Task: structure prediction
Amino acid sequence: MSGSGRLVVVSNRLPSTLSPNGRVEEGAAPVGGLVTALSSALEQRGGLWVGWSGRMGDRSGESPSLEMQGRIQLAAIDLTRSENNLFYNGFCNRTLWPILHSFPFKMAVRHDSYRSYVRTNRVYAKVVASLLKEDDTVWVHDFHLIPLGHELRKLGWKGKIGFFLHTPFPPSEVFTVMPWARQLLDMILDYNLFGVHTRGYLRNLFDSLADELDGVTIGNTFVSGGRSLQAGAWPIGIDAEGFRKMAVARQESTTGSYVHEISPDHQIILGVDRLDYTKGIIQRLITFEHLLERYPALRGKVSLVQISAPSRSRVPEYVEERQQVDQLVGRINGRFSVAEWVPVRYLYRSIPQDELVAFYREAQVCLITPLRDGMNLVAKEFVASQGDDPGVVVLSKFCGASETMKQALIVNPYDVETTAEAIHRALKMSRRERTSRWNSLMEDISTYTASAWSDSFLDELETEAGG
Result:
């Protein structure tokens, strides 16, 4: 990784949410490949991570609280309750999130929330600008902060700024349904380098730029009115070796686990998601119900363990999603349960990573069927956690992971019958075929790790992207 200056990472929220007394809040530990990758990059070269503290006060925190964790300095920004409601719950979660995931019919159109989105990005930009040094490299993350590069340029910053979008980027005819599509696309041109997870998202980005702005795409660069944007696809990975070691340690531990309450005679189908309408949990439950109808021999022999971490519980669309999931779980268990067997084990809570690997290790099938997902690291975590008798990944074609995880069983989650057949095939698959598929998947995730992802993007930003 090139570059002699600091790396400055900006995300909506810090990787560990700081409470007023400076301690990490319980349950706020970072999860996933993003934190693994960025923490490693920041530790290597020294750096700064700027994000929301999780606190809400009377005034925006343009004077952030600073704390050192090793070689990483954390700069925590406070937001007002109004900013949190309009910026985060409003524009980010009710406008951008659905449009980026190709759910335009769920999009809320409120001009006050868009104005708050821009204003809040201005707050972030002022904090970042006050902390920057001349040779710093800025790396902005995700849809909450699309205008941040534009706001930094307005404040006079001329150094390198990269951006990475961790959601999908939808087709142009979907994205441009949003009234502010043109404004956001114009702001994107203030970045030197824009990253997405897949080649398909990259095509969609260039199509939207071409449709809304007066410019041309040359290779991986969009040029418009004397401004240019370089963009590329970098699929994020995980720390595969770290997950493998964690899974082995968990297996050797004498600590009990919920998963051990399930009879060893039962095969386990595992779903792990945030409770979000993009994750296809409703379709997954309907598919499992169809599986039990279509293959009655499986009754009493297979259990679906669905872990759903609470998410955005005050947003109406998520309240409705939870109600529908609860009703479906009740319906399936009411139809098929017998004294010694409950078909669906539903856990509505967050599971710590060191406990989650026990579920990964014991499951015969990991059912990952989002209706749309930027990448989905659960698929990779499951593979890394497997032992000598590996399970099978059943994976939606609509998540970014499907672009490289070709040895999974790829399905269309809207097609209930065919997806149920794929689950049945996974449950009956020979050990030889399972092992062959797992070896190929493991080679891929061991090569394209979280650290390789961040190093590759930063090398491109610092050596190739203009600025």
